[in-house]
Design a protein that fits this description.
Layout lengths: L1 H5 L21 H41 L7 H17 L4 H24 L10
Bound molecules: prephenic acid (PRE).
Prephenic acid binds next to helix 2, helix 3 and helix 4.
Keywords: Isomerase
GO molecular function, one term: chorismate mutase activity
Protein name: Chorismate mutase
Length: 130
């Protein structure tokens, strides 16, 4: 059983889900409840990492496409549309829309940095048909 847990990529052998600065300072029933909720937080955080990895895989493809056809890294028109959609979705989901916007902008600025790195390392062809 512990072998199975050690092989779980979402936890790993070095991860201690019970690590806390509160250990020994709070009631054990409270700690138990806290750990139960933290289990869900850990699952959500793992999912976020997987989702972001998939998103960056997709944007990497866009980066190669943009470098190949010498398109600008950023697309402000697309971003404006993404932001207004995400703000609306956030409102519907009771998430602070300002946070949703900040989060998307944070991700997009990283994507643009990646696009620029791809474009900087991309040797343009000499106009041959591709
Ligand atoms: O769709 C694109 O053109 C992308 O480069 C992807 C993306 C994004 O991360 O969603 C990143 C930069 C652009 O400004 C707009 C959108």
């Amino acid at each position: 059983m512990s072998d199975q847990l050690d092989n779980d990529p979402t936890t790993g052998p070095d991860y201690d889900p019970t690590a806390s600065s509160l250990t020994g300072h709070i009631d054990s029933a409270v700690m138990e409840e806290l750990l139960a909720v933290r289990g869900s937080i850990d699952n959500i955080d793992a999912t976020l990492v997987y989702l972001l990895a998939e998103r960056f895989k997709a944007t990497q493809r866009v980066g190669y496409l943009k470098a190949r056809y010498q398109l600008p890294a950023g697309d402000p028109g697309r971003e404006a549309s993404q932001i207004s959609r995400l703000r609306r979705l956030a409102e519907e989901a009771n998430l602070d829309p300002a946070f949703a916007e900040k989060f998307l902008n944070f991700i997009i600025s990283e994507v643009i940095r990646h696009h620029q790195a791809i474009s900087d390392s991309h040797v343009p062809d000499r106009g041959e048909p591709s």
